[in-house]
Amino acid sequence: MRNRTMAAAVTAAAVLLGGAACGSDSSKPSASPTTAGGSTGSSTAGGAATSATGETGKLTGRLTVLAAASLTGTFTRIGKDFEAANPGVKVTFSFGASSTLAQQIIQGAPADVFASAAPANMKQVSDAGDVSGTAATFVRNQLVIAVPKGNPKHIASLADLTKPGVKVVECAAQVPCGAAANKALTAANVKLTPVSLEADVKSTLAKLTLGEADAALVYRTDALSVADKAEGVEFPESAQAVNDYPIAALAHSSNLAAAQAFVAFVQSAPEMSVLTAAGFQKP
């Protein structure tokens, strides 16, 4: 049985000494922690919360949420709402590929809540004994073909992505958006040779918006988030590759009361409206 306390302490010490660097230490979140307001958090803010409730019973302390990259915009807004409803709590986020975040949690990274873009990654965390209670599916997401405004290559289907001169970018296969893309392509009997395979959906979308690709297979929500630069082309095979998003409080949370409250808050009617307005579907 792991010594979670020691793992969390070692991780916190590494953050204090080295800052919130990305990618080099598997025990830390891959993305730099951000506060609910969207600014980069301090190195100490990356740790799990240390206080659950004050004397009055109100929630207090810090809350660290690890969430799929596709939730960046909506969860940043929801984090602000949660802080407004609970002034004693400071929410810090780390966004990244669900597969990467799951491994960080299993290896002892200090965190209180995990929101995944795929049940498979949540199951990894649950099987390791790191989920408190039961994970709940709170939204679903579906793929589109993101293209530049005006659709200059006239992309209308997955088959069009195989036309000569069309540069396509996808998520890597181990990432939820990549796994979904592979399912959809298999259903359409289409084989692609992408110009790059990216670590998460935000990186995939960036290739398109920077002009490095003619099309990208991303979630509908991501295409909507850059509606001034791109548009999403719907395709029928995406219905066979819809991703469920589960969320759960983590068993080794240092602020379990706040973690459970955040999970419930995300599923409340006002915050579900934030999610559906961004293009997420109700489960």
UniProtKB/TrEMBL annotation:
Keywords: Metal-binding, Signal. It comes from Catenulispora subtropica. Residues 29-54 have a biased composition (Low complexity). SUPFAM superfamilies: Periplasmic binding protein-like II. Residues 24-54 are annotated as: Disordered. The keyword Metal-binding applies. Belongs to the bacterial solute-binding protein ModA family. Residues 1-23 form the signal peptide. This is Molybdate ABC transporter substrate-binding protein. PROSITE patterns: PROKAR_LIPOPROTEIN (PS51257). Gene3D superfamilies: Periplasmic binding protein-like II.
